[in-house]
């Protein structure tokens, strides 16, 4: 999720659509806001996917982001703050209903959906890319679900993706909000191929004339070395604990400087968001399908609107920018099991129903 920057892009221009040969192209076009997603953008993407699904001339869909910084840094969190403080959260719930439905649609899209995950890809940017059938990262990619930093919980299917990562790598990324590069994105199941960023325009041009399976081998390269595997032993050991408190204790005691630093990172996050995130990732493992996990995420996201930490986290990060959130409760020990369970009940306007798993 990202801070919004006022720009001159209208709702109609915030997602550019075009067809080149056999490929339909979606370009997120709010570069000054790092292509932050809004409700009209989600609607426009969904409309394009509907039209192209019916069009036999369009054989491949490609999504990318305008500007030099990245595909998308997430949802426009200033709008969420504004909605909660002045409108009670109804607009945010409506946005998430459509966004999460779109995320599942991307995952189930019947034509090749090629996501060019160059640069920053976070939060909602992960939702419109990492569920796609062909996910391409570059040497510039930084992929993350950083929601705990603003008192929120990974959504847009993030808990589904991270629950399926090897060992406890997904739990580590979900709780810390840490970003990963190309190799670790592949390792964690967030991407499929690495292509040098400078080659993306040529790859996109070739997709106008040839199938994805013929084009990719000409551009894909071996992934560079990642960093997570070097920390797997302590990550798997520490994050296997049953509670966030025990995870922090293990990180402090394991004797690895990186683990101690991670514990300190966790202790700066929202205690409530950490506990709900752990429960959500563990729940996602049990639920299995993306549809069922997204329905769980909708419950959790809606619950966050009525808790203090989301508004406070956004205030500290992007409104006042003091980076000093005052979490409520302020300590892990003060977050009760009952409070965590309250995030998983049906929201006031009803559950999200995403149909039969496929």
From TrEMBL:
UniProt KW Hydrolase keyword: yes
GO CC entries: cytosol
Pfam families associated with the record: ECH_2
UniProtKB keywords: Hydrolase, Isomerase, Lyase
Domain Enoyl-CoA hydratase/isomerase, first and last residues per copy: 24-344
Domain of life of the native organism: Bacteria
UniProt xrefs under InterPro entries: ClpP/crotonase-like_dom_sf, ECH_dom, HIBYL-CoA-H
Catalytic activity of the protein: 3-hydroxy-2-methylpropanoyl-CoA + H2O = 3-hydroxy-2-methylpropanoate + CoA + H(+)
NCBIfam families: PRK05617.1
Protein name listed in UniProt: 3-hydroxyisobutyryl-CoA hydrolase
Species for this entry: Streptomyces iranensis
Highest classification ranks of the organism: Bacteria, Bacillati, Actinomycetota, Actinomycetes, Kitasatosporales
